[in-house]
Design brief:
The structure is a homodimer of 147-residue chains.
Chain A (H helix, E strand, L loop, with lengths): L11 H10 L6 H10 L5 E3 H10 L6 H13 L4 E3 L7 E3 L5 E6 L5 E5 L4 E4 L7 E14 L6
Parallel strand pairs in A: 4-7
Antiparallel strand pairs in A: 1-3, 2-3, 4-5
The first copy, chain A, binds a DNA duplex (25 and 25 nucleotides) through helix 4.
DNA sequence: CTGCTTGCAAAGGCTTTGCAGAACA
DNA sequence: TGTTCTGCAAAGCCTTTGCAAGCAG
């Protein structure tokens, strides 16, 4: 059902290998954070990661969580989602994809890249290269059960 | 040259009319802010608006700027841009458009809607309607003068 | 006179930073 | 032994809020 999870690490040595391939020393704190993040494709805030790691019985400081998530994002392990100005989300789906964003509930849903096709792209400004395309389909809640 | 400016208000009574059409009482503070915003299509932070209004010789409080920009966004006069997690930008371009975002310089450039074509859109989640499509072409700086 | 608006200052929430101690190669 | 990492607490920054004074209809 969840076709987007196929390239997630399945066990601890997968996880450690993933960190190492990205030039990240696999300390115990980083592994705990990675375990939470890559359990499934999801979008978590730093605070949510802190809470989850803590609730699993591991002690970790807030600063380490923030620093580690910043490091993971820098190394390309996760991407950041800036939809809510009040908090950054870290996205464990490393495959190209887009988002549905329900503005009324805050819910964020991945859209597989194959489901949106872009016909044409304008010329880029001078001295720039295209790094990534972010697409967000902003939704509103409605109660049309039938439609 | 600037084809996106054609629907900007040209004078003070245009501006006041625009506020009134959006159910906003045209107080002097709101007019000063609107004058700055709608002088051209641009992306300004609350602090930039405050500085600009102040530098034009009008006294206005920070709280009023934040509240007014929030009000304008709520009433659909401007849209918000959440690309930089550290500050919200207010976009005075009210026509449908997308953005180039130079991640190295922070520069933000409008893309006219006609320049990107989307072939297909996936089915929406239940009980939702499509409100808006945000597209950002994330760029990196490079020095290929010839390419 | 009544309700909306403004402004000041304080509070709030997320994130970063400085620095000392711990861990690791 | 020297570099890297961690954690605590404090600071920083953007933004919101409470409340009193001002203004408008």
């Amino acid at each position: 059902m969840n076709t987007q999870a196929e390239n997630l690490p399945h066990n601890n040595s997968d996880l450690i290998g993933m960190l190492q391939r990205h030039q990240i020393m696999p300390t115990s704190q980083r592994i705990h954070i990675a375990q939470v993040l890559f359990e499934k494709t999801q979008h978590l805030s730093a605070e949510q990661v802190l809470d989850e790691v803590t609730s699993r019985g591991y002690s970790i400081s807030r600063a380490t969580v923030y620093n580690t998530l910043g490091l993971f994002a820098n190394k390309g392990l996760v991407s950041t989602v800036n939809l809510d100005p009040d908090r950054v989300l870290y996205d464990s789906n490393t495959r190209p994809h887009f988002h549905f964003h329900n503005q009324d509930t805050g819910e964020l849903i991945d859209i597989d890249m194959g489901n949106i096709e872009i016909k044409s792209i304008p010329a880029l400004p001078d001295n720039t290269t295209l790094d990534n395309i972010d697409i967000t389909l902003q939704l509103r809640q409605c109660s049309n059960d039938s439609e």
